[in-house]
């Protein structure tokens, strides 16, 4: 029997003021004809900026541009340079390479960066800006990453990874003979032979807890260590030791000390450790000491300009899933004894993403997700005042601050990625790149109309509507409900990854609706925590009431509605169609459909104990209740399931389980498996496979709710 979940909507529609549209009347049809809509193949045109860094004097700006080579079906990344004093913006590096993480030398004459050019994988290269080709600075077997200049420009800190075997070999006495290994002989010789096979992954011998990477098994531990390169001699040496991970090194302003984060746990295997601590050591690696910040995991330490304080980001280790990432500052007295940290961003109740010290050390700049946008904030250290420096209905994806200059990368509905420059107070903003403005001049890009609505329990939920370019007020349109993953992610005008998909759906005649239901980031800790032990019912009702709101506006053809989402949103899509049949089609992508199986399969398995406070053997009933496969027998909506072969984050058997269950039940279901790719297919997968995914979703919706479905309905009415 058909069923549908209905909710009271009287309060929702009694006052038009509840809907706060941020943009007004759609473009007239006559004007739309001058431009075309977004195509799937426009993926090849989109260029994205990242890794923005200002020169020490704030007059020049380096950044990385990623673009797709359609002939090679590959991504390439190059470094660009902008002269901020009225000069040009130009490309510095070229070729079929992936360059990234540029870092200015203190005198502004050179750029260190990471590149896969050459024959040794990712290494540190140095480019002289006065002229000449980049030269390799490192030649480590396992590559190098994260260059950091010393204040005097004579040294570079960087990171590299080592296997446990390599750590042991580096500690072995020179000249010591390798014991004999054989397939026969003594048991000691046999064991050595077996260990050698396992070392080469033939076979994989698994003894660790975290044995899954993103696409491959990781049976053998790797350790991230800190190295220092002497630029005069060209010699590198490792500053850290042991089977531990060391992250984010930073020189003190005088170059005498290094701050970093590390997981140093002599009595606990690192797979069981979920916290990094803050450390300081001398620049030669000696006198390492931990700076106590109990109850938090620490990352990204940065010295203040005066060298008397360290700022860092931190997350609570007691409630690690929904908790906010906070910005802290700890003072270091002359004897290196630390006082308790001051939590700078806590009054904002939002997760901090990136931060920088102001040049005078009196404030900290940071970004945070807020109501679908990502502004830059400035926090004054003297009085704690926090205010937006770079606001707007957009997202700042990266930024840097030097002298009186602020540089940042922006995504917004009108343009997926451009680089901007402003004064340190946010004034006199100007765009310094033209990555996408050229091709977008001939394309119609739709705005996002924001609205707020009360949900079933009175909480205000934020959503957005995108209309087709040729929108006609006298017509009703098919609708696609897009759901975000996470579960604690946030969508909005400041979200870059969905720019192309949203615009493509709108260009093909769909109303696109997306929301930030309970559990989303950007609305405070309490809002995120609402879905603890309850992933399904509350978020489902939130997104369905958003659909009700569109229907009640009279703009939606109720018989032509579809829903889709990936990862957690794949979960919620499947959960939703198991509880409500208003949608004519659904696409569940890379989702989790059985939480108990997810615990045993995906590399994100810790979400089960973090989000549900149980292990499967402790309370199997709650995992059964919250799993979409439990309600598979109630699904009547035609469902397309998508997954990638090498997705180890959610585990590909999740999709196999749901598909087989629905096929046995003779439900309307199709299944698509993408080769070679992992969980991030839609964002960073092979370009041709990304386009296939987009067009396959479009084709599926067209069959059930788009032009083909409308034509069938018209023929049926004619008969």
UniProtKB/TrEMBL annotation:
It comes from Candidatus Kutchimonas denitrificans. Keywords: Hydrolase, Protease, Serine protease, Signal. Coiled coil: none annotated. Residues 1-30 form the signal peptide. GO terms for biological process: proteolysis. This is S9 family peptidase. Pfam families: PD40 (PF07676), Peptidase_S9 (PF00326). Residues 500-706 form the Peptidase S9 prolyl oligopeptidase catalytic domain. Gene3D superfamilies: alpha/beta hydrolase (3.40.50.1820), TolB, C-terminal domain (2.120.10.30). InterPro entries: 6-blade_b-propeller_TolB-like, AB_hydrolase_fold, Peptidase_S9_cat, WD40. GO terms for molecular function: serine-type endopeptidase activity.
């Amino acid at each position: 029997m058909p069923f549908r979940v209905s909710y009271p909507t009287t309060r929702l529609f009694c006052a038009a003021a509840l809907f706060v549209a941020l943009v007004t009347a759609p473009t007239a049809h006559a004007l739309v004809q001058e431009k075309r809509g977004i195509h799937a193949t426009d993926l090849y045109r989109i260029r994205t900026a990242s890794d923005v860094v200002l020169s020490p004097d704030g007059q020049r700006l380096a950044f990385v541009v990623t673009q797709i080579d359609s002939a090679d079906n590959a991504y390439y990344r190059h470094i660009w340079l902008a002269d901020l004093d009225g000069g040009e913006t130009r490309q510095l590096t070229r070729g079929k390479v992936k360059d990234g993480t540029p870092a200015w030398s203190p005198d502004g004459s050179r750029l260190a960066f990471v590149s896969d050019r050459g024959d040794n994988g990712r290494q540190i290269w140095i480019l002289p800006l006065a002229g000449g080709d980049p030269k390799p600075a490192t030649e480590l077997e396992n590559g190098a990453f994260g260059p950091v200049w010393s204040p005097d420009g004579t040294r570079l800190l960087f990171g590299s990874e080592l296997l446990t075997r390599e750590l042991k070999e580096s500690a072995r006495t020179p000249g010591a003979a390798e014991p004999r290994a054989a397939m026969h002989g003594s048991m000691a010789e046999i064991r050595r032979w077996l260990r050698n096979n396992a070392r080469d992954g033939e076979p994989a011998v698994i003894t660790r807890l975290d044995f899954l990477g993103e696409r491959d098994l990781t049976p053998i531990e790797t350790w991230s260590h800190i190295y220092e390169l002497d630029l005069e001699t060209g010699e590198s040496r490792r500053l850290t030791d042991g089977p531990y991970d060391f992250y984010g090194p930073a020189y003190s302003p005088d170059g005498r000390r290094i701050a970093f984060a590390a997981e140093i746990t002599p009595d606990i295997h690192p797979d069981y450790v979920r916290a990094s601590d803050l450390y300081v050591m001398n620049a030669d690696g000696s006198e390492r000491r931990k700076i106590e910040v109990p109850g938090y995991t620490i990352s990204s330490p940065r010295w203040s300009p005066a060298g008397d304080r360290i700022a860092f980001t931190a997350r609570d280790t007691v409630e690690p899933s929904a908790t906010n990432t906070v910005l802290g500052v700890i003072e270091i007295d002359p004897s290196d004894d630390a006082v308790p940290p001051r939590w700078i961003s806590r009054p904002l109740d939002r997760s901090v993403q990136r931060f920088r010290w102001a040049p005078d050390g009196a404030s900290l700049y940071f970004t945070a997700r807020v109501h679908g946008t990502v502004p830059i904030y400035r926090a004054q250290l003297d009085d704690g005042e926090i205010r937006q420096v770079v606001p707007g209905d957009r997202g700042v994806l990266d930024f840097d601050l030097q002298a009186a200059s602020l540089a940042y990368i922006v995504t917004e509905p009108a343009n997926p990625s451009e680089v901007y420059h402003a004064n340190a107070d946010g004034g006199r903003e100007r765009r310094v790149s033209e990555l996408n403005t050229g091709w977008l001049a001939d394309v119609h890009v739709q705005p996002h109309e924001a609205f707020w609505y009360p949900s079933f329990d009175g909480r205000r939920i934020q959503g957005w509507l995108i209309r087709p370019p040729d929108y006609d007020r006298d017509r009703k349109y098919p609708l696609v409900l897009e759901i975000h993953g996470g579960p604690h992610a946030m969508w909005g005008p400041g979200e870059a990854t969905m720019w192309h998909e949203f615009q493509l759906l709108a260009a093909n005649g769909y109303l696109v609706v997306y929301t930030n239901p309970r559990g989303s980031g950007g609305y405070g800790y309490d809002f995120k925590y609402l879905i603890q032990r309850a992933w399904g019912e509350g978020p489902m009702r939130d997104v369905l009431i958003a659909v009700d709101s569109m229907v009640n506006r009279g703009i939606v053809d109720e018989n032509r509605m579809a829903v889709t989402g990936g990862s957690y949103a794949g979960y919620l899509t499947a959960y939703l169609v198991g509880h409500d049949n208003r949608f004519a089609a659904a696409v569940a992508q890379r989702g989790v459909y059985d939480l108990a199986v997810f615990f045993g399969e995906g590399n994100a398995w810790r979400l089960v104990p973090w989000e549900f406070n149980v292990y499967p053997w402790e309370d199997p009933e709650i995992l059964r209740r919250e799993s979409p496969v439990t309600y598979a027998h109630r699904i009547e909506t035609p469902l397309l399931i998508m997954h990638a072969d090498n997705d180890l984050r959610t585990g590909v058997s999740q999709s196999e389980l749901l598909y087989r269950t629905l096929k046995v039940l003779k439900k309307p279901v199709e299944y698509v498996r993408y080769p070679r790719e992992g969980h991030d297919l839609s964002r960073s997968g092979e370009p041709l496979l990304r386009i296939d995914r987009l067009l396959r979703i479009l084709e599926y919706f067209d069959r059930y709710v788009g032009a083909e479905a409308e034509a069938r309905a018209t023929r049926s009415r004619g008969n």
